[in-house]
Design brief:
Blueprint lengths: L1 E2 L6 E2 L10 E3 L6 E7 L2 E5 L10
Antiparallel strand pairs: 1-2, 3-4, 4-5
Length: 54
């Protein structure tokens, strides 16, 4: 278990969680990216930006 970096809510790791997986905080709705499994850590997921056809 870890904390949401935005609101501090507890984020629970599912048995099949993998690094790079995107999760949503149940309290604040922020999209989080799993950065480590042991210890379990999450960070705010980077926002997708429009590439304007590049």
């Amino acid at each position: 278990m870890t904390e949401c970096p935005i609101c501090g809510a507890e984020i629970e790791k599912a048995a099949d969680t993998v690094v790079g997986e995107l999760l949503e905080c149940a309290d604040c709705g922020t999209e989080l990216e799993v950065t480590s499994l042991d210890p379990f850590k999450v960070e705010e997921a980077p926002q997708e930006e429009e590439d304007w056809g590049e």
